[in-house]
Design goal:
The chain has about 180 residues and is an alpha+beta fold. The chain has two domains: about 80 residues, Alpha-Beta Plaits (2-Layer Sandwich); about 70 residues, ACT-like. Chain A, domain 2 (Alpha-Beta Plaits), CATH 3.30.70.1150. Helices cover about 25% and strands about 40% of the residues. The chain is built from four helices and nine strands, in the order βαββαββαββαββ. The strands form two sheets. Strands 5, 6, 7, 8 and 9 form a five-stranded antiparallel sheet that branches. The chain is elongated, with a radius of gyration of 19 Å. The protein starts with 10 loop residues before the first strand and ends in a 10-residue tail after the last strand.
Amino acid sequence: MTVALDDRPYARRTLVALMEDRPGVLSHVANLFRRRNYNIESLTVGHTEIPGISRMTVVVCGDDAVVEQVIKQLYKLINVTKVTAINDDAAVVRELALIKVHATSANRSEIKQLVDIFRAQIIDVSPESMTVEITGTEDKVESLISMLRPFGIKEMARTGRVAMVRGAAPNGAPL
């Protein structure tokens, strides 16, 4: 098995695994990482266009050897049907974040201007706070967070990386 990885020796790597949508599969994957002492930086799981198949996007730190080992171990799980290492340069990579920021009547307009600059949305307003939704690259999300931090972030939820290879899948087949 050949895995096309980028040429960085030790970096954040994105893996996409297709697996049967059954109870306990995610637990098996998490245990695999735990047993091997691999750290999961982010993990997202959701349904795919194929009934009964879920797509897991996992970000790990490591060199080519670590990523190769993770892929081999994932393939040993009976419910995993396909694993792909994604090169960020050839992929669409996004993250979603919800950020609840302290807002007063004095700073609401400034927060609104920042939100507009980042093409984010205000999705909830209360007397003491505003909740902002942003979708984009991890750098874009981080930048908005750093700009909102001086106002006081009350709560935050991030999805982690979601990635998909650009263009058509090889041979027109799903990933």
